[in-house]
Amino acid sequence: MRRLWDILAIVGVLVVLAGSVPATLAATHTYNITKILADHPEFSTFNHYLSATRLAGEINRRRTITVLAVDNSAMAPLLAKHLTLESLRNVLRLHILADYYGAKKLHQLTGGSAVASSMFQATGDAPGTSGYVNITDHRAGKVTFIAQDAGDSTAPASFVKSVKEMPYDLSVIEINAVLTSPEAEAPVPPPAPVNLTDLMSKKGCKAFADLLLADPDVEKTFDATVDGGLTVFCPGDAAVKAFMPKFKNLTAEGKASLLLYHGVPVYYSIQMLKSNNGAVNTLATDGTSKSFNYTVQNDGEVVTLKTKIVTATIKSTIIDQDPVAVFVVDKVLEPRELFKVAVDVSAPAPAPVAKKHKTAKGTASPPAPAGPEEAPADEKASDNAARRSGGKWVVAAVATVAAVAAVGVY
Ligand SMILES: *[C@@H]1O[C@H](CO)[C@@H](O)[C@H](O)[C@H]1NC(C)=O
Ligand SMILES: *[C@@H]1O[C@H](CO)[C@@H](O)[C@H](O)[C@H]1NC(C)=O
Ligand SMILES: *[C@@H]1O[C@H](CO)[C@@H](O)[C@H](O)[C@H]1NC(C)=O
Ligand SMILES: *[C@@H]1O[C@H](CO)[C@@H](O)[C@H](O)[C@H]1NC(C)=O
Ligand SMILES: *[C@@H]1O[C@H](CO)[C@@H](O)[C@H](O)[C@H]1NC(C)=O
């Protein structure tokens, strides 16, 4: 085990030193379950409900999982029960196993059986053993699945075929019937409506909440995103106060972008943030240029957000309840699209080994030993951005310059 961690640590260091392009949060992310299933129209209902219940996003963010898909006719009896979306979600969670089971492994189970924990179990909503799935490898090659608390009248579902195997990240298996249990189908109280600005005001982000309330369009954007998943990093009152002179200097559009920059249209629990590093897009991100992003980076229990301008640290949690999380951060997040890059003297200097500074035009200067210094490319970028009144419409050319400049910093 020790050795494995050592190797992982070395690999991690090499990746960082190589100055690689930042990965999307959920590091090695390479799959999209919606797309995978879209190639198989017989799973369109199952696929539809993975999206409707927001489980598709969770699947894409996880590694080492198995999805037990059922075809449209097998979905029919489940839909006939007219469960609420929240209960349906729990039933579907039974179909997402927290381990990798390819066809081969299923047909070679040690001792002929296994107990797999499902995403239902992982939510903590599943009482007792109801979140576990029994897998049995019978003689003659038949493999069956049943929710551990399924009840006596329930027949197990059988393995039909392997749909997609990406060892050892994702396996998609077809089974011939849905897995369910009374616990999974139990009514789930609908989540209490969340008033973001109210919550923030009461828990240390009043100044930020007031800025949101002062711009109804922006506030609406935050509110409208909650249902589909939202993570807000709200700067604490002291941070906002210190930032106000700079905020007042922004155009109306720049102000809106700055506020939207603090919202990420995906629900990230603190656990997810602590276990994944990578770039995230924000409510201010322009769809085509993918601008207005930052990097989530954790160091043990500490989670930081790195824009090219500042590094903020998560200080506390206001709410962390799927589909919405609000975390207090110690700095206002300044996007490079609106502010000039100054080298952060408090940041540890990158190790000299294997660090290549490209000399092509437009690249950043090496990190300065001390004192704030502006990287010419980014200055140009932010000036351009400012001239376009700092909004979401930073043109591709500017984004390119900024991206090239970024290479030297990573
Ligand atoms: C996944 O694929 C679907 C269908 O192709 C697409 O609509 C969706 O935007 C994709 N999701 C991501 C996160 O790329
Ligand atoms: C699942 O397996 C456990 C232990 O292996 C067993 O006690 C339980 O009865 C099984 N449940 C079903 C529904 O087969
Ligand atoms: C949240 O509460 C504030 C008052 O604190 C109110 O102005 C705002 O409209 C509320 N937002 C929603 C979405 O209800
Ligand atoms: C506001 O903008 C002016 C003009 O660009 C600049 O001189 C000043 O330093 C800015 N103030 C702050 C606090 O950024
Ligand atoms: C982050 O934004 C920059 C523009 O500011 C863009 O060039 C880059 O591709 C974006 N990164 C990601 C991972 O979307």
UniProtKB/TrEMBL annotation:
Keyword Membrane assigned to the entry: answer is yes
Matching entries from SUPFAM superfamilies are given as: FAS1 domain
Gene Ontology CC terms, in alphabetical order: plasma membrane; side of membrane
UniProt-listed Pfam families: Fasciclin (PF02469)
Compartment(s) of residence: Cell membrane
The FAS1 domain covers 30-179, 192-333
Q: Where is the signal peptide?
A: 1-26
Composition bias type Basic and acidic residues, residue spans: 377-386
Asked if the keyword Magnesium belongs to this entry, the reply reads no
Q: Which Gene3D superfamilies match?
A: FAS1 domain
Q: Which keywords does the record carry?
A: Cell membrane, Glycoprotein, GPI-anchor, Lipoprotein, Membrane, Proteoglycan, Repeat, Signal
Q: Which domain of life is it from?
A: Eukaryota
By sequence similarity, the record places it as follows: Belongs to the fasciclin-like AGP family.
Q: What does this protein do?
A: May be a cell surface adhesion protein.
Q: What is this protein called?
A: Fasciclin-like arabinogalactan protein 2
